[in-house]
Amino acid sequence: MRLILLAFGLLLSISAAKSQSLEEVDRRQAAVIEAWEKTPLTVRQAAFIKGEPRGYGLYDEHASSEFKKGERVIAYAEPVGYGWKENGKGLFEFGFVVDFQIKSRDGEVLAEEENFMRIATESHRRNVEFFIVLKLNMGRAPPGEYVVTYKLHDIASDKTASFEMPFKLVAS
């Protein structure tokens, strides 16, 4: 029995020696922030989705890039490399001003709008998990193949990033 207790005590001390401290987690998080600030604004993930996401990475992907006429075209995107600015209230503000452009498959610009929307939030932390949801109403567009280009303007820096998403509208 004494041998078992001694072995159990040894296991506990080895386990404690291998565990991370909160200070180590904070140190590594600071390194992530440092790398993040040096990263160009990029979109890590962009997908067409069904409905509203339930949170970061929590969405139901649309079965394809094909939509029925009248169906809302909803895009989910995860930007990386954006900045944060202190707002004077002890919070960090981050987000984007978004432009969009819709082109036909052969490149003809059919619609575009700068400053289409502003997406921003405030946090006590420099969040590195942030997503945006972009919705298009293509109700009046004829069936066909299209490409939507979204351009993100970081509100906390001069960084910008664009991403394209081809899709098809079919008769309902």
Describe this structure in words.
- The protein is of the alpha+beta class and 172 residues long.
- It has one domain (40-170): Immunoglobulin-like.
- It contains two helices and ten strands; from the N terminus they run H-H-E-E-E-E-E-E-E-E-E-E.
- It has helices at residues 2-18, 22-38, and strands at residues 42-55, 58-61, 66-68, 73-80, 85-86, 92-104, 109-123, 132-136, 144-154, 160-170.
- The strands form two sheets. Strands 3, 5, 6, 7, 9 and 10 form a six-stranded mixed sheet that branches. A four-stranded antiparallel sheet has the order 2-1-4-8, with no helix packed on it.
- Strand 6 (92-104) and strand 7 form a beta hairpin.
- It is elongated, with a radius of gyration of 23 Å.
Rg (CA only): 23 Å
In terms of quaternary structure, the protein is single chain
Total discrete domains: 1
Run of helices and strands: HHEEEEEEEEEE
Q: Could you report the average pLDDT, rounded to the nearest whole number?
A: 90
The CATH architecture can be named as: Sandwich
> What's the CATH topology name?
Immunoglobulin-like
Gross morphology: elongated
* Uncertain spans: none
Quote the distance from N terminus to C terminus.
74 Å
Summing up helix and strand content along with how strands pair, one would put the structural category as alpha+beta
Number of helices: 2
Using the coordinates above, name the CATH class: Mainly Beta
Question: Residue share in helices?
Answer: 10-25%
What fraction strand? over 45%
Please give the largest β-sheet: 6 strands, mixed
Record field, number of beta strands: 10
